[in-house]
Amino acid sequence: MRVQAYASVARGPFLLLPLTLVASGAAAAAWSGSFSWPRTVLALVGLVSLHMAVNIFNEWSDMRTGIDLHTERTPFSGGSGTLPAGGMRPRTALVFGLVCAGVGLVIGLWFLIEVGWVLLPIVIAGAISVLAYTDVLARIGIGEMAAGFGLGAGPVIGTALVQGGGWNMAAVAASVPAFFMTLNLLLLNEFPDEQADRDGGRRNLVILLGRHAAAWIYAAAGLATPLAIVIAVLLRVLPPLSLIAVLPSMLLVKPLQWALSDPELPVPIPALGANVAWNLATNTAMALALIIATYRPSG
């Protein structure tokens, strides 16, 4: 079996997201006075494994339900196409996903033993997001919310917690924009897949509310992201330097133009790309701002 097939079903290019989330959470913990390189690296391995599992289970389920046979793929949505093309057997993909989920679970349990029960809600929520997202959560109208927490807010807070310093408001504040951005990352990608998802039994926001209402939710979450950062700085929960994380929101121009004009039209590919870049750039800018604020000389 080619390595490329495994990388494709895991959707390798999208695995930059957990890197930025872990960086943001670890930087928030460092700014609050607690940081460990080994624990940060272990958290990254665990989160990447869980993200891979979600992607693989999604590919396996979409092949099983027939969604993958009817999606109009873009570079950012519609799956990898590996299973329909015969690049990997569905059963092999399922086993691969279970192995990745197992790695993430073992790491989560180790952290639970080391850090304590304070981490339990994050571990439980993460497990539910991984195992139930595709076949349960995405079919009852809460898939976007689950993604926003499971691959957004939760990892930022969880990474900060495993540093050993307990809860801190900086990590919570950094997790709010991460929640909105991951929600939007999934939501915008659902528009091109609307008909295939509908035929396959999915019940996401685009299907439940219609394209116009879902587009308004996208716009609201997009605008809430920089607003959350500004509010956190004004409340002195985040350092003033964190305002640089507002700058990547300029990338929202193309997605918002589409969302607020005529969302009945197909989402332009540049808008889909800008949506991904905005997500990664904002998390990265937040991490860099917190690192600089932590280590720059005082006075």
Describe, in short, the structure shown.
With 299 residues, the protein is mainly α.
Care to describe what's here?
The protein contains twelve helices and no strands. It has 299 residues and is an all-alpha fold. It has one domain (3-295): Farnesyl Diphosphate Synthase (Orthogonal Bundle), CATH 1.10.600. The chain is globular, with a radius of gyration of 19 Å. The model has no long low-confidence stretch (mean pLDDT 92).
Describe how the helices and strands are arranged.
Blueprint: H1 3-9, H2 16-31, H3 37-65, H4 90-115, H5 120-132, H6 143-165, H7 169-190, H8 194-199, H9 205-209, H10 211-234, H11 253-261, H12 269-295
Q: What is the number of beta strands?
A: 0
Order of helices and strands: HHHHHHHHHHHH
Quick one: overall form? Answer: globular
User: Could you tell me the radius of gyration in angstroms?
Assistant: 19 Å
What percent strand?
under 5%
| Mean pLDDT level | 92
Largest sheet: none
The span between the termini is 58 Å
Put simply, the count of helices is 12
Query: How would you classify the helix and strand content by structural class?
Result: mainly alpha
The percent of residues in helical segments reads 55-70%
Give unreliable regions as ranges.
none
CATH class categorisation? Mainly Alpha
CATH architecture: Orthogonal Bundle
CATH topology: Farnesyl Diphosphate Synthase
Q: State the domain count.
A: 1
